[in-house]
Amino acid sequence: MAETAEMIEVLICTGTGGIASGSLVVADAFQAEFDKHGVEAKIGKRCSIKKTGCRGLCANDVLVDIVMPGQAAVTYDFVTAELVPQIVEEHILGNEAVAKKVAGAYYEKFLEKQQRIIFSRCGTIDAESIDEFIAHKGFTGIKKAVTMTQDQVIEEVKKSGLRGRGGGGFPTGVKWSFCKATPGTEKYLICNADEGDPGAFMDRSVLEGDPYGLIEGMMIGAYAIGCTFGYVYCRAEYPLAIKRLQKAIDTCYEKGILGKNCMGLGFDFDMRIKAGAGAFVCGEETALMASIEGQRGMSRPRPPFPAVRGLWGKPTNINNVETFANVAYIFYNGADWYASIGTEGTKGTKIFALTGKVKHTGLVEVPAGTTMREVIYDVCGGILNNRKFKAVQAGGPSGGCLPGEAIDAQVDYDSLIKAGAMMGSGGLVVMDETTCMVDIARFFLNFTRVESCGKCIPCRIGLKIMLEILERITEGKGQEGDIELLQDMAYDIKKSSLCGLGQTAPNPVLSTIRYFRNEYEAHIKEKECPSHSCKPLLHFEVIESACKKCGLCYKICPVDAIRWEKGGIATIDKEKCTQCTSCYDACRFMAIE
Amino acid sequence: MSNAAEQVEQEEIDLTGANQVIDKYLDMHGALMPVLQEIQEVYGYVPEPCVHLVAERLNVYSSQIYGVLTFYAQFHLEPRGKYIVRVCMGTACHVKGAGRIGDTLKDRLGVGHAETTEDLKFTAEYVACIGACGMAPVIMVNDATYGSMTVNKMNEVIDKYVKMD
């Protein structure tokens, strides 16, 4: 490895986000430049182009790190193929960074408050290389685990305080002990990589950026529980994640890491990917198992719990991707180290997917207990277009919307539930003053209604009726008493639904009523949408006193309905206007009403 | 559908591909979904004769297969367009204006969710979330992802594919 020390490295983001922004083209451009300049001849074969996973800052892709021997890495953002020759010439050959293109101060700030543990390999190592994984502590966790008894491994996980990262937050070690305690030799281990939550994509990022880390976590779990067969149930919408994980599994089989007598450590473990087929309810464990068995993904009542009667009637343990990724690190560094991070009730770090009206969207890994304000303002740079923060939706369709007053809530399981939301899988969708909260409630209910498996009546019919009421309100046809009716129905559906989907589906409605009741009332009583977002209630006009004559609205309007000349106030042609709200969103001065 | 019509359709479809897929999975526990998924990869959708073939060879009722096919969003029982345009309707995309991106697509192609243009060139789909929320609003055309969409950009993308064969 002596040679590596002097290696020039080019690290390019090639997660889904990176590829969508053109990172493969950029990688090719680097290769072409190296060939052209004979960089290879000059420095031998020491220049490698690594394809890494996600760096978390998807909004600024393509991100490229240039690591020169003996120097700190320099990060470039928004790299395009056209820029590559300049970077190679000035930076790699001339040894002087292209100052104008280096990522600004925000990039350091983005990383500063984060504690990247689960992500420590993502974006650093070549996701497809098992050697690099091994060079970065890979498989040392499982090797340590097998020196302990099964019970000791479970004890270690309990001691670490790890709670399931899939949403519920059930202590992982306790869950494992249930499955281990069930008699029987044929048991299954399932990794839930379904990630159906709109607004969450951390599992995808782990699968794409550190697939071996997941395999290792699953191996530790399998050893502890005594499972010999594992499934990764992955969303079929994640083609790259499936491809990379499949490649990692194949490599592990070739090298004898999976299969009979794994790595010579004395236990057997086989694993396989099962691609989902587009049903949100399959993230619920009993529905997920039905789906693996080849049936409609419908949930069934519990008990019996999967740990007793799971996949094909056998004891089964299900954990989320991030949970397994955490397990590997607990065994690298010890339970005490892990338990030292985070808060009393929530240990370790949590990955959040920050999206919506926030400046730097992307994936953020912070110690549990960081406040929402720190995550949104310090890490992600605050609200887009310097607008006012209105709410953050935490926990996807099962969670709730937290208003400005709750922004100082800590991000851990208990504080979020107290505030009326939940951690869920960790999606945080930030909303500003242009987002209508009634519309958001309608949006989530529409989603959960479509995704309901239809097995039990409260969920199937109840959600439909709630949705109709919300649609009526957003169309300006709300009636007196609608809010109370919605609340009543929400409580009933929560109480009587069979599975997590129905039990949590009304949450967004309840939390928006709790914090934004005035918006509901404005829709119902004044037939107005205070955020100017509900189309049937809109009439667009430029507020002359606020217009800064910048012409942004003119440029964005897709139907040429805006008249504007340089230095003049814009006007809207109401005949042509399709009320698409493009101009309203684009205006930075709230000059369109 | 009458028997005659069924026959015609069965003659039109070459079942070799489907048989090969089934061969691979014959001994697997829970083979139904992977088989259907791969058959869909071969044909672009799951043709009716394939359903009967799978029923026979995997020894499951056709009704159960249809139960699965109609439950999951990803299975299609009709031929689909060459270019599948997926508009993400996830929360992040919704907040950032996915609605008008979807409207634009509908205006341009004249087809709604899960519908295919008559020339079999485009299929429009509004999907729950494609996991690229950092670049919302997002669309996908087949395997290519396009982020930070605006109405104008959407039009450009569609133009590009309209010009392609």
What are the key terms here?
heterodimer, A: 593 residues, alpha/beta, four-stranded mixed β-sheet, 24 helices, B: alpha+beta, five-stranded mixed β-sheet, 50% helix, elongated
Note the total helix count of chain A: 24
The assigned structural class of chain B equals: alpha+beta
How many beta-strand runs of chain A? 15
Strand % of chain B is 5-15%
Shape of chain B: elongated
Largest interface: A-B, 63 and 47 residues
The Rg value of chain B, from CA coordinates, equals 18 Å
**Regions of chain B with pLDDT < 50 over 5+ consecutive residues?**
none
Describe the structure in your own words.
The complex is a heterodimer of chains A (593) and B (165). Chain A has 593 residues and is α/β, with parallel strands linked by helices. Chain A is 40% helix and 13% strand. Chain A contains 24 helices and 15 strands. Chain A has helices spanning 16-20, 23-37, 39-43, 84-93, 105-112, 130-135, 140-145, 150-160, 172-181, 202-209, 211-225, 239-254, 285-292, 321-333, 335-339, 372-379, 413-419, 437-451, 457-474, 482-496, 500-504, 507-525, 552-556, 582-586, and strands at 8-13, 47-52, 64-67, 74-76, 188-193, 229-234, 270-275, 316-320, 349-356, 362-367, 389-394, 400-403, 427-432, 562-563, 571-572. In chain A, the strands form 4 sheets. Chain A has a 5-stranded mixed beta sheet. In chain A, strands 2-1-3-4 form a 4-stranded mixed beta sheet. A 4-stranded parallel beta sheet of chain A has the order 7-6-5-8, sandwiched between helices. The relative contact order of chain A is 0.09. Chain B has 165 residues and is an alpha+beta fold. In chain B, 50% of the residues lie in helices and 12% in strands. Chain B has 8 helices and 5 strands; from the N terminus they run αααααβααββββα. A 5-stranded mixed beta sheet of chain B has the order 2-3-1-4-5, covered by helices on one side. In chain B, α2 (16-25) packs antiparallel against α3, α3 (32-43) runs antiparallel to α4 (48-58) and α7 (98-109) runs parallel beside α8 (151-163). The radius of gyration of chain B is 18 Å and the shape is elongated. Chain B starts with a helix and ends with a helix. The mean pLDDT of chain B is 88. Chains A and B meet through α1, β9, β13 and α18 of A and α3, α5, α6, α7 and β5 of B.
